Amino acid sequence: MRTRQYVFSAVRTALTLALCATLSAQAQDAVHPPGTNIAGMKFGPFPGLPTCASGSVQNGDPAKGPSFILAKLKSGCSVPWHWHTPSETLMMVSGTGRAEMKGGQGVTLQSGGFALMPATHVHQFVCQHDCMFYVYSDAPFDLHYVDAKGTEIAPEAALKAVKETAAVAPPK
Questions:
Q1: Which of the residues 20, 44, 115, 139 could staple to 86 if both were Cys, CB 3.0 to 4.6 A apart?
Q2: Contact at 8 Å (CB) between 106 and 99?
Q3: Is the dihedral of CA 22, 25, 29, 31 positive or negative?
Q4: Which of 28-42, 50-64, 113-127, 134-148 has the lowest mean pLDDT?
Q5: Is residue 68 domain-resident?
Q6: What is the CATH number of the domain that holds 151?
Q7: Is residue 126 assigned to a domain?
């Protein structure tokens, strides 16, 4: 029972923080509209992530500070073991995916699912069925792939192991 209370408390706290961050970012960032539907969003590659993943920045600037991104991953898309400097919060919109953290128990997420990966904690994500989820990052977003020993490796090496290639920034 205490575990259930902890989970609900963690979810409530994360959603409250996410809402506060959104409201704060909206007040500071007039570039993004106050709301958008999926049909109006522009998706594109994110450098370093696999080419089977795309995203649309909803609020903030991932290179400079906190941000919300709507991510789409194709069935079978894998983001192998990695970590981020900021904490990362996932909120599933649709599909099914599996999040795993080193030293912890994995969780299969479906529509409405939630996962929190603390800063610098090694984790991975595999999309099992066309995934769409929001990613909230509480600081500038970065991505550090690691091998089985926990040593940082280049995106190309990490993604080659899952038969993928790293996306590059689109030409401007």
A1: 139
A2: yes
A3: negative
A4: 28-42
A5: yes
A6: 2.60.120.10
A7: yes
Q: Are 108 and 133 in contact (CB under 8 A)?
A: no
Residue 4 has a pLDDT of 44
The pair of structure tokens assigned to 107 is 């969780």
Angstrom CA distances, 28 to 60, 109, 114, stand at: 9, 32, 27
pLDDT class of 172 with cuts at 50, 70, 90: low
Domain range for 64: 42-160
- Inside any domain, residue 172: no
The stretch 104-108 carries a mean pLDDT of 92
3-state secondary structure of 69: strand
Which of the 8 DSSP states describes residue 166?
A: B
What's the rounded Cα separation, in Å, for the pair 162 and 81?
A: 11
Q: Is 96 exposed, middle or buried (0-12, 13-18, 19+ CB in 10 A)?
A: middle
On whether the CB atoms of residues 98 and 153 are closer than 8 A, the answer is no
4 within domain boundaries: no
What one-letter code names the amino acid at 5?
Q
For the stretch 35-90, pLDDT in tens is: 788 888 999 998 899 999 999 999 999 999 999 999 999 999 999 999 999 999 99
- Read off the DSSP letter of residue 38: G
How many domains is the chain built from? Answer: 1
Pairing verdict, β 123-137 and 88-101: antiparallel
Residue with tokens 């998706």: 43
